[in-house]
Amino acid sequence: MEDSLFTFNFSAMSKKGIFTVVVFLIALILCDYIFGGFSKMLFYSQKTGKFARLSYIVKSDTSDIIVLGSSHAMRHFIPEIIQDSLHESAFNYGTMGQKLLFNRAVYEIRKRRSKPKMIILDVDADWFFDRHNQQDRMADLFPYYERVGDIIFRDFSRKDRFFGRLKCLSKTVQFNSTIVHVIEYKLKPQDDFRGYGPLFGVVDSLQLQAKLDAETATNNMKLVQPVYDSSLINLFAQFLDDIKDNDIKLFVVFSPDLIKPDYAEKCFDEKVKEICRNKTVPVIDFSNSYNFNNNRLLFNDFGHLNDSGARVFTKILCTVLR
Amino acid sequence: MLFNSFNFLFFFLAVTTLYYLLPFRFRWIMLLAASCFFYMSFIPIYILILIVTIVIDYLAGIYIEKAQNPLHKKALLTVSILSTCLVLCIFKYYNFIVINYNEIAKVFHWNYSIKILKIILPIGLSFHTFQSLSYVIEVYRGHQKAEKHFGIYSLYVMYYPQLVAGPIERPQNLLHQFKTKVNFDLNVLTEGLKSMCMGFFMKLVVADRCSLYVNAVYNNVHAHAGITFIVATFFFAFQIYCDFAGYSLIAIGASKAMGIQLMTNFRTPYASHSLSEFWRRWHISLSTWFRDYLYFPLGGSHGSKINTYRNLFITFLVSGLWHGANWTFIIWGAFHGLYLIIESIVANGKKYKYPKIWIFAVVSFGWIFFRSNTVQDSFFVIKSIFTHFGTLFIPGNQDVTAPIYAVIAIAILLTLENRSKIARILLPENKPIRPYMKMSFYIFLILIIFYLGVFDGGQFIYFQF
User: Fold this and answer.
1) pLDDT tens sequence across B141-170
2) Is A19 within the bounds of a domain?
3) Omega of the bond leading into B435 within 30 degrees of 0 (cis)
4) In 3-state terms, what secondary structure has residue B11?
5) Total structural domains in chain A?
6) Which member of A23, A31, A177 has the closest CB to residue B447?
7) Is residue A151 part of a domain?
8) Which of A12, A24, A71 faces B397 most closely, judged by CB atoms?
9) What CATH code is carried by the domain that includes residue A230?
């Protein structure tokens, strides 16, 4: 007999059991709300640091010139030099680890408030890869979900948009991994350089040599044409179109590299240049610049200029922009 | 479909609900279909490999049981083992063998090189082939009756919670459970969910948090120095433990929610006082597999000491190779084998208790080989640790938060693993742990996952094996 009946039996769940489950769920939602609320309060109390800067970009900035990009943008472009040189207010929006999707979103957020006059777009060789990873990194904008939730998930697939919104139902998730930043910047406030994040190290000569040797050894293995995500290439083209349609001056920039770009990077640069050529967007390429290649004293690490390097670079860039 | 994805959460909810809603006789069909769907969500075509293995071992089991002549039995077992291993060899070791052959050919100027195959390793291949092998061997040994029901046998190999990364089950433990009717029990479901919760904590909060630092360092070793490698290796020790133990707990929990018990795979391995104890606590389902099906058949610890050491070394060498077709894994296995031999010589039949920190350091040293992308990288790391201490790498340029979160995550993990001891200290004697305390604990755990978890759907390390 039992085989012909559905074996899920609600009576098997005791009243006490159901009551416990209900209490657990209510307590969880309440705790999430309280803990999330507390995290929000702490988050918005930040005056300096990564998130204070991002909050300013999302909520307040109205600079005429903005720099978009990843950590290269953040470490390489000095707004004060740009301001002095071009006589317009400038702010560096470059954000560590962020790629195309994030920069598009930040641009949209800014545009909703006011249009900048000029955008300097610093692009990185990994912008046309791994859409999934780029979506994950949009979590940096989760604390602003209530304000700009529609923009955050705009470029997501329908399923990912659903899951993303589901995640953000939790107040705690919205402020995921922010507490250490809060404490860090409370203990050690950071100077504000209009979004620019200076670095003061120098690349170790031994490490540079080891890296150059390793590059030479693996050079032959890198001659493989990278396979790009076509949807990201389309998004990039749309991004350029949108900026142009809004009458915003746009310059696409390839930042200086300590080691000359390898084959994969060259392929990426060519792809970006091709898109920009089609859209008549000017490209400024510093990746092969003799001022910077192998000049370890201008670099903090293999990927980023130090403050001296950034000053040299921004000054040269401004002469080109002028 | 990764365990740490929303897709899996919905899948799990749907399967578990259906499992209890369906009449018992239909459950295996639903579970088998769900397992196929689960496996096909990775690379659909590879299900054919599974089907081939299943058919071969299913038939082998039946014919081994039927065979009267021991020689026939042995021949059938050999055919079954060889064909299952052949699948493993083609997909996992073929390219490794070819690459090494080509390197040797280059050295000796042989004018013949073999092309490598452009294939992706089927997910969890080593796990389900080993599970399949254990069935055939157990039938051969007479410890298990051959399963006549093809569907149930297929489910034994394909059961979704442990399909891609174990625990590697034995037929005696799992097969009969598919035939035993389980009624819905809220307590059983809750126990399963608790286990999953702990698993998610280990994976999302500890493993994935540590991986951010570890990957930044180990994927670019030439840019770093000794102190950075020490910190990265420390984090990797926790990353791999929490990644794999976390996966196992989610698998055990997902299965338990349906009333099906899987074997325990980890028992706080870093609390071991010797390396042999470590291997009794780490990846138990694999260690016991190698013990039962390789170490013992080789002769185990019977016979001369030399033979015992030889058996131990071979077992760990093969275990290293099982983990991956790369010299780094083979060296890792050899390192453990050698250390166990030395430990055995030093102990000389007595039971030595080494400080936990020493065993942790030894195991962590082994992890350098395990995590390095190449043998050259691993020796570069070791050399740097001893000769070029350097300065500590901080990811994202001055962003100190990644390692801090990793340390916080490890601290919470150690607290949770010792929660019973802590409760004993904090609670007055004989005072029971109240239900509301347990509830608070799991609310805390979920909030920690929400607050500190890395939700980027990071791959489980052991999937590649």
Assistant:
1) 999 999 999 999 999 999 999 988 879 999
2) no
3) no
4) helix
5) 1
6) A31
7) yes
8) A71
9) 3.40.50.1110
